[in-house]
Amino acid sequence: MDKNIPYKTYLEESEMPKAWYNVRADMKNKPAPLLNPATHKPMTADELSAVFCDELVAQELDNENAYIDIPQEILDFYKMYRPSPLVRAYCLEKALDTPAKIYYKFEGNNTSGSHKLNSAIAQAYYAKKQGLKGVTTETGAGQWGTALSMACAYLGLDCKVFMVKVSYEQKPFRREVMRTYGASVTPSPSETTEVGRKILAEHPGTTGSLGCAISEAVEVATHTEGYRYVLGSVLNQVLLHQSIIGLESKAAFDKLGVKPDIIIGCAGGGSNLGGLISPFMGEKLRGEADYRIIAVEPASCPSFTRGRYAYDFCDTGKVCPLAKMYTLGSGFIPSANHAGGLRYHGMSSTLSQLYDDKLMEARSVEQTSVFAAAQQFARIEGILPAPESSHAIRAAIDEAMKCKETGEEKTILFGLTGTGYFDMVAYQKFNDGEMTDYIPTDEELEKSFAGLPKIG
Ligand SMILES: *Cc1c(COP(=O)(O)O)cnc(C)c1O
Predict the structure, then answer these.
(1) To pair with 377 at 20 to 30 A between CA atoms, which of 37, 97, 175, 399?
(2) What is the third-level CATH fold of 19-68+115-229?
(3) Is 1 a residue whose pLDDT tops 80?
(4) Distance of alpha carbon 178 from alpha carbon 184, whole angstroms
């Protein structure tokens, strides 16, 4: 062990970040604005406030303020499970026999089991402050719905979750956690909304997708007095809240006197990665430091590595604003891979712009190699990782092995976004040797790109 580097580094309460960092303030090329799907004009705050809470709309549109104070009530909630530890993966380094120094920021230390609680509490807080009765949302794998249910229970808000039908059926325990926290959970597509009935009529027997569930949740929010819609990833406001991950990591590294060379995160809609990298990216944008930043996505849903940078619909029902992002097309339904949190067709517009400006890299990895990394990590470091997080583990191990070849002592930081206890069907498939690596063909992607809206 390095003499001065402990196995785990926690911040003291007095060292905890008191403001979120908004990386957009330091971006020369700002992320493209959301567009009204009917007029193709940028969405105004007024239009957005029909769907989202007022303060969250302000955060969504704020490209100027670098720091936004975290309200005391949210800081108090964060104290229940934060700071999260920055862990030096000494056991993994030893097992790989690499000169690389590997660190991970562990976000799975709360009941919801992932980083999503960082934004759930913020969004629920602003809804409560606005005097709303409740919020609606969608959930795929279930982590976001669980996190939001916890936050709403804490604040006494009603929570209506549309859960992608296939997950609803395959993950009954996730559903029960949400219900235990008081949320109502509806399998999507459902007969309870107009858009749900339309999707069911067009695709009878469909097991749903995130895009369908979003359309249903938005419809209920905009048609029910005292409700707004909240989203667990993709949006600028979510990246802002998740900056707590990066700010804590940066503060812990500064305390240790260490600077990472490579920062790695899995990318679904981009919120954990965006949050983890934000203060480091800020330094890079201001020319104060340089870092290699790597987004890791599934080969079955490769938005960055094979997608188009274009305006697209965020949902299947096409009721949401248009976002400019790396996208596979809103009609793209990824094969049944086991990283539910990484199955979204698009990507955060902030990260999309940073990637387009070549300020970060992306790579895709295949499912079985991800689970091999997950199993290796579980056996060596003890934590049973979520399949999503294991994409970052895969890339971190690969980078550490490159260091072994070259003899370079690089410092690697990766985001360990959550635990995988509700993903044991996936682990079972892997353990039984029944897991497959489906990769979409160019023809399939072209077909989906053909459905992109024509803008400008
Ligand atoms: C949702 C989720 C992700 C992916 O979402 P991002 O917004 O890209 O961070 C990654 N890991 C876990 C554990 C998740 O629950």
Answers:
(1) 175
(2) Rossmann fold (3.40.50)
(3) no
(4) 8
Q: Which atom of ligand 1 is nearest to the CA of 386?
A: 13
**Bridge partners for 298 per DSSP:** 365
Distance from Cα 24 to the centre of ligand 1, integer Å: 21
pTM: 0.97
- Whole-number Å distance, alpha carbon 371 to ligand 1 midpoint, is 16
- Condensed to tens digits (0 to 9), the pLDDT of residues 143-195 reads 999 999 999 999 999 999 999 998 899 889 999 999 999 999 999 999 999 99
3-state SS class at 135 = strand
Q: What is the pLDDT of residue 268?
A: 95
Q: How far is residue 351's CA from residue 13's CA, in Å, rounded to a whole number?
A: 30
Task: Of 193, 147, 138, 187, give the one whose Cα is nearest residue 167.
Answer: 187
In angstroms, what is the span from residue 416 Cα to ligand 1's centroid? 10
- Mutate which of 138, 271, 345, 421 for ligand 1? The one with the most ligand atoms within 8 Å of its CB, which is 271
- Taking the centre of ligand 1 as the mean of its atom positions, its distance from the CA of residue 347, in whole angstroms, is 12
Give the torsion sign (CA, 136, 141, 146, 147). Answer: negative
The CA angle 174-175-179, to the nearest 5 degrees, is 120
For residue 113, give the ligand 1 atom closest to its CA.
13
Largest distance between two CA atoms of the chain: 65
**Ligand 1 interacting residues, C-beta cut-off 6 A:** 114, 116, 143, 233, 266-273, 341-342, 386, 388-389, 417-418
- Coil/strand/helix, residue 299: coil
Contact 152, 177 (CB under 8 A): no
Whether 19-68+115-229 and 8-16+81-113+239-449 are alike in CATH topology: the answer is yes
